[in-house]
Amino acid sequence: MPNTQVRSVKSPEGVNRPKRSPRKVRILGLSLLAVLLLGVIIFLLIPSPIEPAKWSAPTAPSFEEAGPWKQNNKLSSAQLVTDAPKSPEFITFDKEGQLYTGDSDGKIYKVAFDAEGSPQKAKVFADTKGTPNGLIFDANGNLIVTDVKKGLLSINPSGSIEVLANQVDGKPIYLANELDIAKDGSIYFSDTSNYGRVTFREIAENKPHGRLLKYDPLTKQTTVLLEGLYFANGVALSADEDFVLVAESYHYQLTRYWLKGSKKGTSDIFADNLAGFPDNITRDEQGHFWVGIFTTRISFIDQMHRSPWLAGIMAKLPESLLSGASAPAKHGLAVELNPQGQLIESWHDPEGSLYGVTTAASDNGYLYIGTAPGGSRGVHRVLLTK
């Protein structure tokens, strides 16, 4: 039998390697394909960790058509106030006009302004060792804070921190988010979700896990006013305190809970079909409400809500692979609503220099803008010219 030799070619490194036959290449390719198909089959057969609810979101408002949603550049000229807080979720002011905002690392910053209104260097006021979101001063000069990890806090002028509430009805306050304070000292605040954190899985599930709570400073008791909210977020009282608003981010709406009158103790929809995820709510001197829109509508999210099967599949994926699916669109947006819930005007940055807007707060002729992780960094402001 004649001797046979395997032909070889010289590699770039000078090492002779056997040349693979086309048959072996085909076998290897088919084997890899079989492994891949087997992995896909196993992935599809694994039960989803959620049972998604079907929901057909209304068609988003158009930014191209004439009307209050029409796109403009009102936020595009935003001026940086301070970049000390990377993610200034909420913005408030003390009686002297100094700005306060928290950051996701637990620090709360204070920014003073000079006689010409120019911001000075930010200073650390306190550190909750958590994640301070909402913050408003009470009548005694204490900074009341809703901290995602710590609950409802009170910080006195010297920076000492007291926990007001971290439980309600014997259960934890899972994710204290935003707040407002009534003239009698009552604190209304949101408990965003019993998931205890922001997670894509909750968006996919599309079920209500949030609550609106009330803290009574006299009795030091916390009560539940509303349950079954779709990611309870921003909170704001009306000028007459006859109702309190809470944002339901995942259903693009603001819900109104009546505190006075014939509807006391009931709730209804104040504004719906917003052009994105409403975040925080503030009230200006006219009694109008300003709402930060964290992201404009994401078509994939609406598509997923229409298809529970798709939502269930997506929920199986690791969270690290899903961050891009719910990342804020690079389109800055804040809106102004009148006391009846009608849209007055929308403020845009379509270029996305400023985006991921959580807060729009009117003060001393400016609209101050806060953001959250995933969006722009630092506190910004624009002149309130219309």
UniProtKB/TrEMBL annotation:
Classification via Pfam families: SSL_N, Str_synth
Domain Strictosidine synthase conserved region: 177-261
TM region positions: 27-46
Annotated spans, Disordered: 1-20
Keywords from the named record: Glycoprotein, Membrane, Phosphoprotein, Transmembrane, Transmembrane helix
The keyword tRNA processing appears for this protein: no
UniProt cross-references to InterPro entries, sorted A to Z: 6-blade_b-propeller_TolB-like (IPR011042), Strictosidine_synth_cons-reg (IPR018119)
Family the UniProt entry places it in: Belongs to the strictosidine synthase family.
Name assigned to this protein: SMP-30/gluconolactonase/LRE family protein
Species of provenance: Paenibacillus plantarum
